Amino acid sequence: MQHTNNTTLPAYTEVNGITYQLVGDVYLPLIAVEDKPRKPLGYWGRQRRNYLMREQSGTYAELLLTGTISDYLEEIEEAAERRSEELIAYMKKEMGITEEMKAQLPMKWAATMNGIAQAVREIVCDELIFC
Predict the structure, then answer these.
(1) Residue closest to 69 by CA, chosen among 36, 97, 102, 115
(2) 32: Cβ–Cβ under 8 A, 6 or more apart, which residues?
(3) pTM of the predicted model, to two decimals?
(4) Digitized pLDDT (tens) for each residue of the chain, 131 residues in all
(5) Cα Rg for the chain, rounded, in angstroms?
(6) CA quadruple 98, 76, 122, 42: dihedral positive or negative?
(7) Which of 35, 73, 74, 117 is the most buried (most CB within 10 A)?
């Protein structure tokens, strides 16, 4: 597209409701995102963000451009943390892991808890992160 005038004129499209501004030969969207305090992203939120960036770039771009990515990742983080805690409590009960075992057989307790933690990571990833 040839543009002979060096001024930047805003252009509006009715199709998607976004205002664009011509910068050089390219129209860039004028997007404003709320600047509210955020807590740092945890393990689950980072995993989901990385998955979206790698495997679902369209969804990631939509969340980013609409300014909802932070809220979305916080929801995933909270849901994954709740699910993780539920699974750990359930598995500990099913396997008979107690504080007594921790005191009497610390190596066995640690090995069992590590196994539970790994199983929980895989389950939560399958259910909430990589879907």
Answers:
(1) 36
(2) 67
(3) 0.71
(4) 444 455 555 555 555 677 778 888 887 777 776 667 778 899 999 999 999 999 999 999 999 988 899 999 999 999 999 999 999 999 999 999 999 999 999 999 999 999 999 999 999 999 999 98
(5) 23
(6) negative
(7) 73
* Domain positions in the chain: 1-30, 31-129
- Helix H or strand E encompassing 20: strand 19-23
Across-strand partners of 63? none
Q: Residue 131 corresponds to which tokens in the numbers above? A: 């879907």
Tokens of 46: 């980072």
Please report where in the chains the tokens 């009715």 appear, as a residue: 14
